[in-house]
Specification:
Helix content is about 25%, strand content about 0%. The protein is mainly alpha-helical. It has a domain of about 50 residues. It is elongated, with a radius of gyration of 16 Å. The termini are far apart. It comes from Litoreibacter halocynthiae. This is Fe-S protein YdhL (DUF1289 family).
Length: about 80
């Protein structure tokens, strides 16, 4: 029996199935992409996907909340 499974050679989506768009920042709280980026993902090249994935970690700071429920200032 073979464990060879056909796979596509492409950059995987960062989607984690937590699809909630932050009302102020307008990015998904799960994957940190914008609605436009999510919609364009299937048409993006591997290079464009890789570049976007490199940007995502910096976006998480935009969603941090301080005590009292206020969003922390960034920048």
């Amino acid at each position: 029996m073979s464990d060879d499974i056909w796979q596509r050679d492409e950059v995987e989506s960062p989607c984690i199935k937590v699809c909630i768009v932050h009302p102020a920042e307008r990015i998904c709280t799960g994957c940190l992409r914008t609605i436009d980026e999510i919609g364009a993902w299937s048409r993006m090249s591997n290079e464009a996907r890789t570049a976007l994935l490199e940007e995502l970690p910096a976006r998480s700071a935009r969603l941090k909340v301080r005590r009292g429920g206020r969003k922390a200032r960034v920048g």
